[in-house]
Amino acid sequence: MEELLAPGLGQVRVFLMPDDNKPRKLRYNLGHRRLLTFGGAYSNHIRAVAEAGRRHGIETIGVIRGEEHLPLNPTLAYAVACGMTITYLDRASYRLKHTEEVRARLRAQWGADVAILPEGGSNAAAVRGCAELPGEIGEAYDVICCPVGTGGTLAGISAGLPEGKRALGFAVLKGAGFLADEVARLQREAYGRTWSNWSINLDYHFGGYARSTPALDGFIEEYQVEGIYVAKMLYGILDLVRQGAFAPGTRVVAVITGQPSTPVEAWDAPTGLDSGDPRWRR
Ligand SMILES: *Cc1c(COP(=O)(O)O)cnc(C)c1O
Q1: Residue 20 alpha carbon, nearest atom of ligand 1
Q2: pLDDT at 260
Q3: What pTM was computed for the model?
Q4: In the chain, N or C: fewer CB atoms in 10 Å?
Q5: 150 and 214 in contact (C-beta within 8 Å)?
Q6: Ligand 1 within 6 A of 21 CB?
Q7: Number of helices and strands (H, E) in the chain?
Q8: Is residue 71 part of a domain?
Q9: Which atom of ligand 1 is nearest to the CA of 146?
């Protein structure tokens, strides 16, 4: 793993782990014939679902917030090229997308057997997929950090941590106090229990989702990192280190999410599941 060398780190070591969390979140969600999910027009999750659908021969439907804008942006054009059917939901209905009423309407439209994945893809299966991440790192670290959008990635990393290690998430949304309950809820849904080895820092949202400030813009320029998720986490880590929030000698692994260096296996059928396993049933 590459080590981040930055001024002011002192005795704290920060290692960068490129890892695409979206394939991990989808891995145990692919046992369906038809998959419907939600996202904004630039959603990485929409893109990942479309790609998984193409690779696994699953019919995919992307329900996009707002109105259609033509020509399609690169995210949606890629999704369509992967075979995804794109449809739009006005903002008022989109806000109610997880209510039974809207879900019933979507099932009536797309078939009673359509599997509905939440926005961002965070559900129990996603948590189990992300729980595999810590096992791939070895033991030479103390804290794993990741950006937090909907919380599934953090919930999984926490669940997969060896004894004595901690997970720290950095919220990229403003007013994200609800995320702590959400992470606990996801862990309960996946494993019937919660863990107390994680926390979420809410101080580095820089104005909210996909917002930025001159300070963050400068950071993105300097470190050449993705701006919506990764930059906020890395900025937060460096700032906290300089404030002395980590004990000297702490080894931090920063998960650089959304990197295309995802091992191909992450897209493959999970091993150890036979075709009769409900997690992998078509
Ligand atoms: C979706 C995403 C996240 C956030 O993951 P959650 O499980 O929603 O918290 C972080 N980084 C990137 C690049 C993403 O696409």
Answers
A1: 13
A2: 55
A3: 0.91
A4: C
A5: no
A6: yes
A7: 10, 10
A8: yes
A9: 10
d(CA 130, CA 159): 9
**CA 218 – ligand 1 centroid, Å:** 22
* CA 200–ligand 1 middle distance (angstroms): 14
The H or E element that residue 13 is part of is: strand 13-19
- 206-262 confidence digits (pLDDT tens): 999 999 999 999 999 999 999 999 999 999 999 999 999 999 999 999 999 987 544
pLDDT digits (tens, 9 = 90+) for 137-159: 988 999 999 999 999 999 999 99
Which two three-digit tokens encode residue 31?
């046992």
On the CB side of 95, CA atoms within 13 Å amount to 2
**Ligand 1 mean position to 276 CA, how many Å?**
30
* Percent of the chain's residues with pLDDT above 70: 91
Residues 73, 159: one domain? Answer: no
Distance in angstroms (rounded) separating the CA atoms of residues 281 and 145? 33
What range defines the domain where residue 187 resides?
Answer: 2-23+124-257
DSSP line for 147-213:
EESSSHHHHHHHHHPPTT-EEEEEE-STTGGGHHHHHHHHHHHHHSS--SSEEEE-S--TTSTT---
Tell me, yes or no, whether 108 and 155 share the same domain.
no
Measure 188 CA to ligand 1 centroid, in angstroms: 20
217 and 133 fall within a common domain: yes
Residue 177 pLDDT greater than 90, yes or no: yes
